[in-house]
Amino acid sequence: MKTSKLFAMLFGTVLVAAHAAPGDLDAAFGTGGSVISAISTSGDDSATTVAIQPDGKIVAAGECQLDFCVARYNANGTLDTTFNTTGKVITPVGMAADHARAIALQSDGKIVVAGSCDYEILASPQVFAAKFCVVRYTTTGALDTSFNGTGKLLIAIGAGAPNTTYDEGISLAVQTDGKIVVAGICGAVAFPAPNAFDFCVARLTSTGAFDTTFNGTGKVVTAVSGSNNVARSVIVQADGKIVVAGGCLNGATTDFCIVRYGTSGILDNTFNASGTPGKFTFPVGTDGDFANSVTIQSDGKYILAGTCSAGGNADFCVARVTTAGALDTTFNGTGKVITAIGDATDILYGVAIQLDGTIVVAGDCFVSGNHRRCLARYTAAGALDATFSGDGLVIDSTRTASNFQKGMALQVDGKIVIVAGCSNGANGDDFCVQRYDGYPTPPCRLDIDGDGLVLATTDSLVHARIAIGLSGNAVTNGIGFPVAATRKTWTDIRAYLVASCAMILPP
Description:
Distance between the termini: 13 Å
Number of helices: 4
Helix content: under 10%
Strand content: 35-45%
Largest sheet: 4 strands, antiparallel
Number of strands: 28
Structural class: mainly beta
Strand order of the largest sheet: 1-28-27-26
């Protein structure tokens, strides 16, 4: 590419490729926006969670033949053969069924996957216990033996004698210092299944040991309300506080609930200080509500998303909570919104916030006898966003067989990636990945390093070096990037410019 065109792209008219409308499948990904991959030989594969690398590669994790499994895709949807030579890896963890529920990427590119691993403690009657389990992979897909010596870790969280608790890891976050936070549920083993849970959170060091600076033991168990409290999602704030959301039994029904811990694992009494400090439980529907995902806005407010029931139907529902622990009535007038999408049962699994403040949710909707992947997008005020597919809603119609959507992630260019287990029409399910357009054109900004500012000594210098034809380390050598910069390497800078500015750049 000639220098003049580079200058034009960087400083003047930005040349971008044609893009579909927001909510349309991205035709540049896979076949018509979809990819289906058989991971195991049995056909019993289901992707449950997904993350996006800074270079645009997509990492999906889930269950294959009841083992952990991970697949990595290139930005165009092809399997990345630099990952375990095949683009996929299957890992047995426990003694029975292993359920991968969450994924997170470390700053060094290593991949962390967490979930629960079952093991049988009684054969007759058959009773299973479970432990939190965590696996860490290197960037090339090998087990990282610097983590617990094997790359795998099983831990008991709940109280009681060994092998007598049912501990299920459900959500995962990696702190900026490399510590790993896993949240889920703990309950006593019972037949045929546990029926009472509490919120459970564990924090591990980067080497896989309990972090004893967290509640003295590296773990904390919290009864939120009633006898059944199920934690589904965890995030770590910029200040290190840990936020966990889920569904909690409150009388006869289950309500949304959110708990905030300080950095040391103690309940944060400044959250809902005038109510039950550290905890906030509230109804959204009339017959039972369950928050499956939580995220945080740039202003610190929390978005909880999940499923709410009323009159026998289950619908998508979203709520916004202030940093102080109260419903934010600037969101839809009440702090909450309910949206019916399918015929009867809509289960919302994931939520994310786009750069323009719009809120994207995705899940599973039952439509005309089939499970369909479905999405919705709301404005920051809580209304359905009509710029997204015309009415704010998308229902996948590309497959006629059942397909269960579970995971969602946003790319830096606003595109929406969702993963699921899709019927292959033969012997079970396969991994399936879809990508949707989120913006009419990619957001291209002069803030190359991602610190929120455009500085002559960083961003402008990077621009100039690229414009004169430099690439690789020659672009970043000698630049003192700010602490807040999120893109400091040529790999990350190049990925941003290619994805967000549609630039064609050398490797």
